[in-house]
Amino acid sequence: MNDTADVLARAFTKLAAARARLVLERPFIGSLSLHLAFRAADPEWCATLATDAHSVHFNPAFVDEVAFGDLQFWLAHEALHCALGHFARRDHRIKRRWDVACDHAVNHMLRDDGFVPPVDALLEPMFRGLSAEEIYPLIPVETAEQSFDRHVFDRDDQGGLAGYLGERRLREELRTRATSPTEGEGGAPPPEAAEDAWDDAGSEGRRHRPDGHRDLRVEGMGDPLVLEHLWKSRLAAAAQAAREAGRLGESWLRRLERLLEPTLPWRALLARYVYAAAQEDYTFQRPPRRDGAALLPRLAKGSIRLVAVLDTSGSITEGELGEFAAELDALKAQVSAQLTVHACDERLAADGPWTFSAWEQVRLPAAVGGGGGTSFAPVFDWVEREALAPDLLIYFTDAMGEFPALAPSYPVLWLVKGNGPVPFGERVQLA
């Protein structure tokens, strides 16, 4: 074999051995890693490892040289990125800061499980026990830290996934050597074994190509939400199997319930709804009456009308109102939104509403007032009376009060503290 083929062969063998050791010593993490096929990557694109939630892409030279224990750590690292659904949770966040936050979160989990982190692993002590969403705001905007691996979950970062020419050459050479009568016992694995070593993530989520390779994903597997659900199922199955075998570590027993049934970060979900409302597309949503009576398609250019309402009945603290205002402040600038804020308990706040342009900082009055009972009807009557026609109305409340009899024509997002139900709109549970 030439030098490239030698390095590739050693790298594949080392990866298979590292994963086998993971399965034997740490079956929970090891079983998760079995869902990721090994794919050689162009060294110019991938310096170390990368994952797209389907495969582990690797630099053959890096794998050939890295310490065996460190390679086990990094394989577990890639598997956890996928199991935790990091590919579906970035939303509006800056990719580099999100990648760094995800690395800190995963590395702390692995160290708590008994892994020995490599010296270059991101492990800020103050981030221990925090999720990636909680770590992200603590990462400086211009951070010098870099993720160890490539997280190629976005379309614009998948240019290097086309494959590595050296791997294809190695496959061809191994087939030739295995079938050659002069090299029948030359030590090269048969072509079937070579394929199994590289594609042993199984056929789940894949289908066979006519030439026998298994690198075509089933329709729908590229959808982050579908993939997130699949990995959540894998996480639950791996945890259940390890628990029944008595091989699930104490650190995972403590985390398992939150991982499988998490209280989704309301900030991430709020951002998702706001960005959905700001998509550039044609809309037939009814315009304000002052724009005329004709109902014609108009292009929504990303500049949207947001109405946010604060429940001041007493169950929402001033600190929580401040956090909500700060999150709206950040989001409205990113989607170029005009924001109108009002407050209400059983009646609208006398000194409201407060309107902010995209470039204006959201500042609530020192005392918003309220503290009485709760009725949601005054808010929707006010929106109709003022002909606001919002692209999205966000209500920050405990959902304990009197609702309007009919749902409005515009979308409503309820951010609910407590267990109160809502009769219409979308409900997001506050942690």
Please characterize this protein's 3D structure.
With 431 residues, the protein is of the alpha/beta class. It folds into 2 domains: 3-260, no CATH class; 266-429, Rossmann fold, CATH 3.40.50. Helix content is 39%, strand content 13%. It has 13 helices and 14 strands. The chain has helices spanning 3-25, 27-33, 60-65, 68-83, 95-112, 132-135, 165-179, 191-199, 224-244, 250-260, 266-277, 318-334, 377-385, and strands spanning 37-40, 49-51, 55-58, 150-151, 206-207, 216-217, 281-283, 298-300, 305-311, 338-344, 354-356, 392-397, 412-416, 426-429. The protein has a 6-stranded mixed β-sheet, covered by helices on one side. A 4-stranded mixed β-sheet has the order 1-3-2-4. A two-stranded antiparallel sheet has the order 5-6. A hairpin with a 3-residue loop joins strand 2 (49-51) and strand 3. Helix 2 (27-33) runs antiparallel to helix 9 and helix 4 (68-83) packs across helix 5 (95-112). The radius of gyration is 26 Å and the shape is elongated. The protein starts with a helix and ends with a strand. The model is unreliable at 182-221 (pLDDT under 50).
